Amino acid sequence: MFDSLRRIIQAVNAAPDLNTALNIIVQRVKQTIGADVASVYFRDADGQLVLMATDGLNPAAVGMVRLDDGEGLVGLVVERAEPVNLEDGPAHPRYRYITETDEEPFHGFLGVPIIQHRRVLGVLVVRQRAVRRFAETEETFLVTLAAQLAGAISHADASGGVSRLLQEVGGTAFTLKGLSGAPGLALGQALVVYPPANLDAIPDHALPPGKVEAERARFRQALAEVEDDIRALSRRMSGSLPAEDLALFDALLLMLSSDTLVEPTLRRIGEGNWAPGALRETIRDHVRIFDAMEDAYLRERAEDVRDLGRRILMRLQSDQPQVREVAEPTILVGEEVTASHLAEVPTQHLAGIVSAKGSSSSHVAILAHALGIPAVMGVEDLPVNRLDEQNLVIDGYRGQVYVRPTGHMLEEFERLVGEEAELAAGLEELAALPALTPDDVHVPLYVNTGLLSDISPSLRSGADGVGLYRTEIPFLIRDGFPGEEEQVQIYRQVLEGFAPRPVTLRTLDIGGDKALPYFPIHEDNPFLGWRGIRLMLDHPEIFLTQLRAVLRASQGLNNLRLMLPMISDVGEVDETLELIRRAHRELAEEGVAVELPLIGVMVEVPSVIYQIPQLAKRVDFFSVGTNDLTQYLLAVDRNNAKVAELYNSLHPAVLQALAQIVDEAHASEREVSVCGEMAGDPAAALVLVGLGVDSLSMSVGSIARVKAVIRAFSLARARELVSTALGMEKAVAVRVLLNNALEEAGLGGLVRAGK
């Protein structure tokens, strides 16, 4: 029985849509268990249980039968969130007979919940004509299958929930739910981005009129090029492999020229889909056939088909332009939108970002903040194949995406977008004003940046300087480590551009989610691995080059502050300080006179919280990186969408940690800044000011919003709110407290759509 489990999951994963996936489930389950009926019920947005697929009941009842929450035996399964196994279902007091299903002959009942992230998505049910309780092995099989289906269904090429499935049949609007990545509201057309040679990520794309033959020719050319590649590979390997292994290349060539591969793809192109999308469907059909085979050897051939599909796709993609032309507001959509994808759309046309992976502290979400565009991250069941060129509205405040909005819904969004523009225009007037509370407390606001192009916008925003310059960005966009002279030029432009305002340069912080293409790091848990100062101390030749460049760039300006990332103990600081002094001595010996800058450490690793008095004897300031500090305190991978909802910088433990950091640092006469994304959140910034944080650093797009909050709330009022927040037990209660305070001050538009 359990040998069938893997094949069922594979078939579901390969299904082209949710409806097909559900029908595969009921057919295979009924066959495997030997039941008389197998059915799947899903909960819709209103909590009703809808019969979505069945093998054994009246097929006309699919989509028509709806049970209220808690109704019938299926409702009992949802209520208990555990299996219900009955030898005679109709004899149970909760049983409800439904005439539309023609279920009268059935007695044995077994229902198991399909649960994902603690939420019951639906119920998998099997029925038997006989009066009997299903065996323990049958129940265990169904429980195991349901647990895997919760994830497998979401990874099928499916639309997701019941409501969306029903709505998409009519092509009407539907809503996707994710996490807030960057605030704001935007309307635009979806542009699906995808990694190279990834067939599963390829979207459908309609061909313009008259382009069918050209697209067919492009596909045939790709086939010819792949054929040449395989023949060349076979020749190269002929001296190393036995004849029976070389036969694999002959098999690939046969597949490449077979009518079952070529003709269906050409037909799909003729129906109006572009070559990559047509190829995706053909390869998927072939893989599904192999996956369903009983013979283990033949099942493994499915991977050969996938490999062939990837080879053809690579050829098709090689002749595609890297930058797609757009002339209207565009929203990037993808399984995992990356920083490099942003370059595919001119900045003036980029309206927003929607990604199936990531969270508010993902690198691309941080860039969205910097660009001032909304982002929705961690969208489960994102139907990327169906979204290309669709009209979208994204709400970055609530983490929602609205697909194909029309009528009154569209009118309301257009009104809100207009109000957003008015709010932004009003905030621009704050640029020339200081970040001063009504009781005359100045809170310096700095920018987080890593791009030279940010200098002018940052200065126009009224920023007091740079609180975090990410020196890794110049490293990320090159093919190799930049030399000392090149680094001097980059850092000098930043320091000169902001002089005499302070500029805090963070030493190279690679690792984690910031890998260099020419210095790959492969680790099981990169966020707990070789990154930041750990890597630099292990490679002093790279570190000393950067330190020399930073010191040289500051000559005569004296506005440099140096910050060390990923510090976990005083020993790392001692080693780093020795390297800084060494670089300083080397420059002095070469006749380059520079002053040693102020040096600080980032508070990201929880161990530092308990070593602040010791570290204060060695460094001049502290800067809290709330992104990583929150991640480590809560044991939540901030880029993992499955647990991203647990990541919350307003968690009571995070607030308590911040309070301790500020108190300890001030007791040691050291300043504390916050340079994580928390500083750019208007509500969270109110907490930070109340805690006594000396300065805040954020993306340039957040400066005006945070300044508006500071100018509206006295320090005394901020302290009152913090006192209340520190006594709360849940992050959601803290968020409500702060958002309500902003609403009362007339600043609700800073944390929601509209003014």
Give a quick account of the main beta sheet: strands, pairing sense, barrel closure.
8 strands, mixed
Distance between the amino and carboxyl termini:
59 Å
Broad structural category: alpha/beta
Number of strands: 22
Shape: globular
Tally of contiguous helical segments? 26
Question: Could you name the CATH topology of the largest domain?
Answer: TIM Barrel
Overall domain count: 4
CATH class of the largest domain: Alpha Beta
Mean pLDDT: 85
CATH architectural label of the largest domain: Alpha-Beta Barrel
Strand content: 15-25%
GO molecular function: kinase activity; metal ion binding; phosphoenolpyruvate-protein phosphotransferase activity
Cofactor: Mg(2+)
Catalytic activity: L-histidyl-[protein] + phosphoenolpyruvate = N(pros)-phospho-L-histidyl-[protein] + pyruvate
Keywords: Cytoplasm, Kinase, Magnesium, Metal-binding, Phosphotransferase system, Sugar transport, Transferase, Transport
Task: Please give a structural write-up.
It is a single chain. The protein is an alpha/beta fold. The protein has 4 domains: 1-169, GAF domain (Beta-Lactamase), CATH 3.30.450; 172-191 and 323-408, Glucose Oxidase, domain 1, CATH 3.50.30; 197-315, Enzyme I, Chain A, domain 2 (Orthogonal Bundle); 420-748, TIM Barrel. It contains 26 helices and 22 strands. The strands form 3 sheets. Strands 7-14-13-9-10-11-12-8 form an 8-stranded mixed sheet. Strand 11, helix 12 (363-371) and strand 12 form a beta-alpha-beta unit. Helix 1 runs antiparallel to helix 9. The radius of gyration is 30 Å and the shape is globular.
